[in-house]
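Researcher: We plan to redesign the surface later, but first we want a full-length starting point. C-alpha cells attached.
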C-alpha cells in the first residue's frame, strides 16, 4: 500500500529542492568572477587568512575564524569563501520563513522567503565579506526576538544577549541594533512592575551581549579583542565624534543623506510604509497593542528606523574623506538585510486584515506617498548615487530608465489601490510590483557583476606575481598603480600581508629610492617606465615585475630564485637549513647566460660516502672538482672561458638514500646539501693555474 504524502511533507520537499536549486544557480552566478569590492575584500581576506587575529583592525572574530578555513583551498580561497557565503545566505531562508509564518500562512511565508533570497542582495555571496553570514545572524536573532513576550523569563533575555553578542562578532554593526531592541523590549513588557522588570531584563541582555563579545574576542585576539569596534571603526567613530563636537555642519549633511534613504524606501516599499504609518495612528495602535502584528510593526520600525539614521550619520561623517565618499552615496547595505521585514509587514495584512483605517485617513497617507513618488520620477534620483555594493536593490531598480519609470508607475498604482482597498493595494505590491522589481533589479545587478568576469591589468598582475614569486619575495613586494581599488585587487591575489600598496598618480614616474626604498620586488602596473637600476625585469601586457634589490646569491632555504635561476633539476624540497640533492646530477639553468669567466662560491655539506669524495661542477666544457665534509663548508670554484652557456651541473659521486644506509626510511638519493651559492663575474680571465679544466 502506497503511503500518502502529506501536504507538509510536500511543502518541505519543495522548499529543500528550491534551496538546492538556488545554491546551484548562485554558485554558477559567482563562479569565475574576479574580486569586486576594494579595499573591503582585501581587508577581510587578509585579516581572516593571513594575519594573527590580534592584528586585525576589524573585530569580527567569528567571521574571521570561520573563513580562515579557506586557507585549505590554496589559491582557490575566493571560490571557497563564496561557497561559504552561499551556504550562510541560504541558511537564513528557514528563519525568514518562520518569522513570516507567525503572521501569515505557510504558502505566503514561503513566497516571502523566496522573494527575499532571489533579490539583488544575493550578490553579496560574490564578495569576500561578512555580509552573508551577517544576514543569517540577523534573521536568527530576529526570529528569536519576535518570539519574546512580556512574560518571557529573564534567562530568555540573557539568551537574546548571547545571540546579539555572537552577531556582533560577525560585524560590530550589530551593536547599533541594541537601542532598537531595548525599545522593542519596553513595548512588549507588561505587568504592574513594567519599568523595573524591563530595566532588569535589558540589563541582563546587555551584560550577556558584551560578555560574549569580549570573552570570545579575548579568546581569539587577546587584549586586542576587548575593543568594541576595533581600530578601524574606532578611528572612524572618533573622527566623527570630534567633528560633531566642533561643528554642527554635519547635521545638514545627515539630513541630506536621510532624504536619499527615505526616497529610496518610498520607491521600493511604498505600501509597507503606508501599512506601518497607519498602525501608528492612535486608533490602530490601541486596537492592536501587543498582538503579533503589532509586535512586528514595532520591531520593524525600531530596527529599520535606527539603522537608517546610523547610515545617514555615517555617510555625513565620512563625506569628503576620500573621492568615493560623497554625501550622495547611499550606504543601504547597513540595513538592507532587514528588507524582508517590509514584505512580512505587508503579507501579515493579507492573512488578517486587522487594521482599520477610515477612507479619509488612507487617502491622506496615500496622497503623501504619491507626491513623494512623483518627486522621485521627476528627479530620477540624479542627486543620489546608488552603487553596486552599497545599494544593489536601488541601483538595479534605477539603472535602466524604462524599468525605473515602469516600477514607479506600478508603485503609484499599488498606493492608489491601497487608498481604495488596503488588501488590493497590498496584493498588487506583493504579487506584481515585488516580483517585477526583484527580477529586473537582479538582472541588472547580475549583468553588472558579469563585467567582473573579465580580468584587467591589475588582476593579471596580481595573479602573475603570486605564481612567480616565492612567499619570501612576496613579503618584500610593492604594488604600484594609479587606481587604488585596482592596486588592492592585485594585493588580494598576491595574498601576502607584508606586501605593500603604492598609489602613484598617472604621469608620475616610479623612483625606487624615493617611493619604496625598502622593497625588493616591484609590481608596476600601467604605462610607466621601468627604472634603469633594476637587477631583473619581466615586461608583460599592462604591467611589469622587476627586482631592485636582487643579487646572484642563491639561498637554498627557498624554493625558487626569480631572476637568477630559470629551472633546476635534481634537488629535493627546501628545509630550514638548505636543500639536499636528490639523484646523481643537479642541474641549475640560469635566467641569463653565465659570464665567460666567473667564480662559483658554494656553501654546502656532503652526505654518506660522498664525505671527502670528489664532486664535479661543470659549466660548458669546463669541469672543476671539489670535496666537502659532513658539516657546512665554503668552496670557491674558478671557471675560465666556459663559452656561451647558461647551466651549471654538479655530479654526485655516490647518490644514496638514508634507507639504503639503514639510517631511516628516507628514500631520497642524497649526496650534497646546498646552503648558499653565488656566481661572481671575473673582471679578467682567471689564470689557468686557478681555473678548472
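Model: Full-length starting sequence:
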Amino acid at each position: 500500500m502506497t503511503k500518502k504524502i502529506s501536504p507538509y511533507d510536500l511543502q518541505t520537499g519543495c522548499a529543500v529542492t528550491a534551496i538546492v536549486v538556488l545554491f546551484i544557480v548562485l554558485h554558477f552566478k559567482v563562479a569565475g568572477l574576479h574580486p569586486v569590492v576594494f579595499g573591503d575584500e582585501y581587508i577581510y581576506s587578509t585579516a581572516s587568512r593571513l594575519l594573527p587575529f590580534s592584528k586585525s583592525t576589524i573585530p569580527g572574530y567569528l567571521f574571521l575564524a570561520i573563513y580562515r578555513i579557506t586557507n585549505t583551498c590554496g589559491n582557490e580561497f575566493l571560490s571557497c569563501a563564496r561557497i561559504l557565503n552561499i551556504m550562510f545566505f541560504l541558511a537564513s531562508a528557514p528563519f525568514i520563513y518562520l518569522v513570516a509564518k507567525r503572521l501569515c500562512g505557510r504558502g505566503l511565508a514561503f513566497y516571502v522567503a523566496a522573494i527575499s533570497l532571489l533579490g539583488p542582495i544575493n550578490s553579496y555571496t560574490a564578495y569576500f565579506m561578512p555580509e552573508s553570514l551577517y544576514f543569517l545572524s540577523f534573521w536568527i536573532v530576529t526570529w528569536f526576538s519576535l518570539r519574546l513576550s512580556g512574560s518571557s523569563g529573564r534567562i530568555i533575555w540573557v539568551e537574546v544577549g548571547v545571540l546579539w553578542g555572537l552577531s556582533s562578532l560577525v560585524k560590530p554593526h550589530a551593536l547599533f541594533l541594541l537601542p532598537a531592541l531595548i525599545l522593542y523590549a519596553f513595548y512588549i513588557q507588561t505587568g504592574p512592575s513594567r519599568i523595573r522588570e524591563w530595566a532588569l531584563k535589558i540589563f541582563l541582555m546587555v551584560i550577556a551581549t558584551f560578555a560574549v563579545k569580549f570573552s570570545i574576542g579575548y579568546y581569539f585576539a587577546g587584549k586586542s579583542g576587548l575593543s568594541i569596534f576595533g581600530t578601524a571603526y574606532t578611528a572612524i567613530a572618533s573622527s566623527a565624534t570630534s567633528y560633531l563636537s566642533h561643528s554642527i555642519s554635519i547635521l545638514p549633511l545627515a539630513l541630506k543623506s536621510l532624504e536619499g534613504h527615505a526616497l529610496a524606501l518610498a520607491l521600493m516599499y511604498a505600501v509597507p510604509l503606508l501599512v506601518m504609518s497607519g498602525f501608528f495612528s492612535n486608533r490602530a495602535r490601541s486596537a492592536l497593542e501587543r498582538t503579533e502584528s503589532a509586535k512586528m510593526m514595532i520591531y520593524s520600525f525600531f530596527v529599520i528606523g535606527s539603522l537608517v539614521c546610523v547610515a545617514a550619520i555615517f555617510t555625513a561623517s565620512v563625506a569628503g574623506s576620500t573621492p568615493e565618499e560623497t554625501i550622495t552615496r547611499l550606504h543601504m547595505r547597513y540595513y538592507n538585510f532587514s528588507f524582508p521585514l517590509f514584505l512580512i509587514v505587508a503579507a501579515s495584512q493579507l492573512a488578517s486584515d486587522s487594521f482599520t483605517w477610515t477612507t479619509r485617513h488612507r487617502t491622506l497617507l496615500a496622497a503623501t506617498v504619491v507626491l513623494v513618488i512623483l518627486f522621485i520620477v521627476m528627479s530620477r534620483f540624479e542627486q543620489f548615487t546608488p552603487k553596486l555594493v552599497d545599494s544593489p536593490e536601488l541601483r538595479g531598480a534605477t539603472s535602466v530608465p524604462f524599468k525605473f519609470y515602469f516600477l514607479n508607475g506600478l508603485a503609484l498604482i499599488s498606493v492608489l489601490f491601497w487608498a481604495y482597498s488596503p488588501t488590493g493595494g497590498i496584493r498588487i505590491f506583493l504579487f506584481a510590483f515585488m516580483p517585477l522589481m526583484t527580477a529586473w533589479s537582479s538582472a541588472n545587478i547580475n549583468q553588472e557583476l558579469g563585467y567582473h568576469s573579465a580580468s584587467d591589468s591589475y588582476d593579471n598582475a596580481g595573479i602573475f606575481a603570486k605564481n612567480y614569486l616565492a612567499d619570501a619575495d612576496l613579503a618584500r613586494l610593492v604594488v604600484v598603480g594609479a587606481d587604488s581599488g585596482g592596486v588592492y585587487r592585485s594585493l588580494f591575489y598576491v595574498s601576502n600581508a607584508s606586501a605593500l600598496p603604492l598609489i602613484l598618480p598617472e604621469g608620475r614616474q616610479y623612483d625606487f629610492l624615493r617611493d619604496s626604498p625598502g622593497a625588493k620586488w616591484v609590481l608596476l602596473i600601467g604605462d610607466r617606465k621601468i627604472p634603469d637600476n633594476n637587477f631583473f625585469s619581466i615586461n608583460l601586457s599592462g604591467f611589469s615585475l622587476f627586482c631592485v634589490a636582487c643579487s646572484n646569491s642563491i639561498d637554498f632555504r627557498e624554493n625558487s630564485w626569480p631572476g637568477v635561476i630559470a629551472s633546476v633539476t635534481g634537488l629535493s624540497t627546501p628545509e630550514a637549513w638548505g636543500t639536499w640533492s636528490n639523484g646523481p646530477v643537479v642541474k641549475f639553468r640560469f635566467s641569463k647566460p653565465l659570464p665567460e669567466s666567473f667564480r662559483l662560491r658554494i656553501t654546502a655539506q656532503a652526505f654518506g660516502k660522498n664525505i671527502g669524495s670528489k664532486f664535479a661542477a661543470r659549466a660548458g666544457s669546463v669541469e672543476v672538482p671539489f670535496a666537502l665534509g659532513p658539516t657546512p663548508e665554503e668552496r670557491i670554484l674558478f671557471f675560465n672561458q666556459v663559452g656561451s652557456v647558461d647551466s651549471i651541473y654538479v655530479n654526485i659521486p655516490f647518490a644514496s638514500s638514508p634507507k639504503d644506509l639503514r639510517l631511516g626510511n628516507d628514500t631520497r638519493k642524497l649526496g650534497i646539501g646546498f646552503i648558499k651559492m653565488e656566481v661572481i663575474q671575473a673582471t679578467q680571465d682567471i689564470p689557468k693555474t686557478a681555473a678548472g679544466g
